[in-house]
Amino acid sequence: VFDYDFGLQDDFIGSAFLDLTSLELNRQTDVTLCLKDPHYPAHDLGSILLSVLLAPIEEQPEATMLMRKSWKRSSKNYDVLPNMPSRAGNLWHRIHSPSDCVLMTSFCVPSNQNHETFQTQSLRLSDLHRKSQLWRGIVSVTLIEGRELKAMDANGLSDPYVKFRLGHQKYKSKIVPKTLNPQWREQFDFHLYEERGGIIDITVWDKDAGKRDDFIGRCQVDLSTLSKEQTHKLEMPLEEGEGCLVLLVTLTASAAVTISDLSVNSLEDQKEREEILKRYSPMMMFHNMKDVGFLQVKVIRAEALMAADVTGKDSFSKSDPFCVVELNNDRLLTHTVYKNLNPEWNKIFTFNIKDIHSVLEVTVYDEDRDRSADFLGKVAIPLLSIQNGEQKAYVLKNKQLTGPTKGVIYLEIDVIFNAVKASIQTLMPKEQKYIEEENRLSKQLLLRNFGRMKRCVMVLINAAYYISSCFDWDSPPRSLAAFLLFLFVVWNFELYMIPLALLLLLAWNYFLIVSGKDNRQHDMVVEDMLEDEEEEDDRDDKDSEKKGFMNRLYAIQEVCVSVQNILDEVASFGERVKNTFNWTVPFLSWLAIVALSVFTIILYFIPLRYIVLVWGINKFTKKLRSPYAIDNNELLDFLSRVPSDVQVVQYHELKQEPSHSPSKRKKNNP
């Protein structure tokens, strides 16, 4: 018997066994079973009443069907559990009773199961609900290319992209324009929940601007036919279409992603802690390069949450809060605490870290049985900013992470990682998230991105004006110093001086920060823009309910969204370069110092022609050495980990006011 929770894990209430030798064949018997927990045998956990009929499988008596029908009539919210194994003679049910219990009953089992077997199963069941591993393994899919796809456009070509689906997990590839033989070279990771495997549904589409996309073809990958810990090259012909897809599929062992109670703490167990520290020690730096680190999150409680439900004659306000913990594509949930604005969850979540620059997102929702959950608050915490073992109260933010909403959440987080692996993974492509909502056109967002790009361009323009003023001798001392510096640099210039100059800039900014002369300022301009955008989003949501004129302007909207996104990318690039030298993320700035030092030494001792020769040989032979390698640019991958100014504002931790009065905060109605 379990307590049904809205999240992924139900709470164990108790278990019992039924001795079939005490039953008479073909005779219905009422049985009362006392529930026990094998770990606490003295505790009285209540009882359940069963009406049991034991009959041979081949007879399938009508009484069984009548019992099932009467049970269905007596339970208003009766439904059959999805994903339960279908076995002859076994009936699995989920019943929403007043106490929200889940009852599983097996009406026919093999006759050779004895008392000890039932006890073993009960013990294993209770252990499972103290610490549960959420999935069995990881499926890594590399989409290489398509061959001879069907032409869907008038020009005899297509703009193909691919959608993947495994259960609830979805991915979408990039669009390759005007080709029938697209090259994607993209990688996606899926969680494998079933021991026996699963089926990945793959569909290929042709992108059409302003109208519905055209279907090109489909195929399926049956994971149960593939051996584990081995990479399989698959050429999948497309059904209902033409051509084929080339894939690389790898099944690997499960990542250590678990949910448990506070009593089961991996880092407090000395043996487990030593194993984790050994796994990520410097001696293991070249073992399993994708396993960068270990994250443990204790979700303890929340206080003074927003009231989302108004019930009763006196308008009594409460919420039914539950918590969602996300790290990249790993998404776990706590149980729901009903009718409580100060819930206590006391759950521990553990994750494998594949990228130390990931951001942990913790979101609190209000559960609604008849509609989607209401948003109550959210925090985003970069892993590199976490202080191990410290229980902190995080002020909840709004959806855009730009300002506070009601309530605080208490978390205790520990991060253990291997710095060498983390540095190497920084230069690898960033993990792509599941398919997200497509960007919609927003006037405020367009203005914000234009403003951000304008600020980056103004830096270059101001630098040009400064150089021009030196040429015009507006300030004779400054122009004289610039002239002497120009003569010295040009006369003595060597290529190694370029990374050396960048290295000196990093060192100078570090000196300013250490000496307390930090010239970095909190970007109020970006924050104001984000708040304006949030207000406009609220207006857009209301307007979209009344009028749907945006739906009629797909083509114009797509062009505007593209411009909006390009502005965002260009502005983000400039901001990330600035934040690298501003020591916004010290780990990345130190990594840049190491890289620039190495480049300086190489350029100083090795002639340029040899460096270019090695670079060219590597580029020309890369496809010969690794035909299916995913193309990447290490510099762009590095910069993708540096937060833009918008992300700096979103990840900024709000300080809890000494006189914490949630009612005085800006109220963000869910």
TrEMBL record:
It is a multi-pass membrane protein. The keyword Repeat applies. The chain crosses the membrane at residues 480-511, 587-615. One of its GO terms (molecular function) is calcium ion binding. GO terms for biological process: regulation of neurotransmitter secretion. Residues 119-236, 270-396 form the C2 domain. It comes from the Eukaryota. Signal peptide: none annotated. GO terms for cellular component: synaptic vesicle membrane. Keywords: Calcium, Membrane, Metal-binding, Repeat, Transmembrane, Transmembrane helix. It is found in: Membrane. The keyword Metal-binding applies. It holds the Pfam family PRT_C. Belongs to the MCTP family. This is MCTP1 protein. The gene is Mctp1.
